Task: inverse folding
């Protein structure tokens, strides 16, 4: 398969994946997990309060609740950390990707809070950001491989340059 066609197919697959996964996440964030409209607003603005509670008071939670809240919040956003820099190279830089997703995550938490289908929890933002950052690992590895020392071309010796 020609490399141009292969690149187009990979790009199409990445776009389909990003759109599909985004729709799936919107469902789970606003409708899934048996979310119901609550009366009253719940929020946590203290960093690591909820995380610390799940870790220190683990015996008060069943494993499913504990795992979903700690590891699920991380894993759920890993695909975005992979797909967004792949499709939007300007977000391949950590500071730009972080700024984008902080904005997106604060918006999601605020919408859940306003719609009373979840709580605004700064710890969700922290865990989701960890997921985004972990999702970038394949890109970081690729960049590091490209920067590895290579034999200098055209000199006929084994001198290495960057």
Result:
């Amino acid at each position: 398969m020609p490399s141009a066609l292969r690149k187009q197919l990979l790009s199409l697959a990445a776009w389909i994946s990003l759109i599909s996964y985004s729709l799936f996440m919107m469902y789970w964030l606003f409708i899934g997990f048996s979310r119901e409209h609550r009366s009253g607003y719940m929020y946590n603005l203290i960093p690591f309060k909820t995380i610390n509670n799940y870790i220190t008071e683990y015996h008060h939670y069943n494993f499913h609740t504990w795992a979903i809240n700690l590891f699920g919040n991380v894993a759920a956003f890993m695909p975005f950390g992979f797909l967004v820099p792949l499709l939007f190279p300007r977000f391949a830089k950590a500071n730009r990707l972080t700024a984008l997703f902080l904005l997106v995550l604060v918006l999601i938490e605020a919408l859940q809070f306003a719609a009373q289908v979840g709580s605004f929890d700064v710890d969700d933002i922290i865990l989701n950001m960890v997921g985004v950052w972990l999702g970038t690992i394949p890109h970081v590895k690729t960049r590091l491989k490209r920067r590895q020392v290579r034999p200098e071309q055209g000199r006929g010796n084994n001198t290495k340059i960057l």
